[in-house]
Amino acid sequence: MIKKCLFPAAGYGTRFLPATKAMPKEMLPILTKPLIQYGVEEAKDAGCDIMAIVTGRGKRAIEDHFDISYELEYQIKGTSKEDLLHQIRELIDNCTFTYTRQKEMKGLGDAIYKGKALLGEDSAFAVILADDLCVNPKGDGILKQMVQVFEKYKCSVIAIMEVDESDTNKYGIISGQEIEENIFRVTDMVEKPEVSKAPTNLAIIGRYILTPDIFDIIKYTKPGKNGEVQITDALLTQAKEGRVIAYKFDGLRFDCGNVDGFVEATNYFYKQIK
After folding, report:
1. Could you tell me the CATH number of the domain that includes residue 214?
2. Number of domains in the chain
3. Res 22 pLDDT > 80
4. Cα–Cα distance between 220 and 171 in angstroms, integer?
5. pTM listed for this prediction
6. pLDDT tens for residues 51-74?
7. CA 151, CA 145: separation in Å to the nearest integer?
8. Percent of the chain whose predicted confidence (pLDDT) is above 70
9. In 3D, which of 272, 2, 252, 255 has the Cα closest to residue 126?
10. Of 142, 259, 264, residue with least CA distance to 150
């Protein structure tokens, strides 16, 4: 079982300025729930109960959100608003939240490496990027699907989706052999290639299950694209040994790291309650 989930949450969220000047982008709400809570709920549904969060300066609101607010609960106790805190209180009561800081923005690979102190090196773990909001209205959540793939293949698993060829320069792109329907054994990975250099249009999105040897690989991975330590480069080391599976998931993904995707997600979830 995958019991631990890492949330890299140290980024500045500059595409949402000035809203993110003092508020973490992970706390931007889709309707009445912040992005990171959707991610934690997905992780819990997949069997995780240890949530490790890599934060940075100005991110204290995340810690406060996953903590009890006795004053607020006292004020609304016995009123019609008491049930509004039920979901977040259930997460607080049933999950353990731990935190560390990424002092410098050195890429996703570095953020995952910073999580080593929280996760240990004894078991595989999940990674969720909160601004990739995923939902499957017809069945299991995306991470739960990936756990099932991991239990079969016992190696790192990455979530992928098809994107327009013109958008390959926004994602890590994989190529590989399809060994089952929607399941690929990865042979190559390229970080944000131009259209002419993209091996496929299969893009990695913000869901991973990683085996613990990834920490030693990241440690010796040199900075790549944009001078950052890319998790794609580290995973390529595993892929060359046949130890990375790419899973084309069932469900929807909203890129809430940009305004268009954020609005699209808001409209989608609003329609679900009407």
Report:
1. 3.90.550.10
2. 1
3. yes
4. 22
5. 0.93
6. 999 998 888 999 999 998 888 888
7. 10
8. 100
9. 2
10. 142
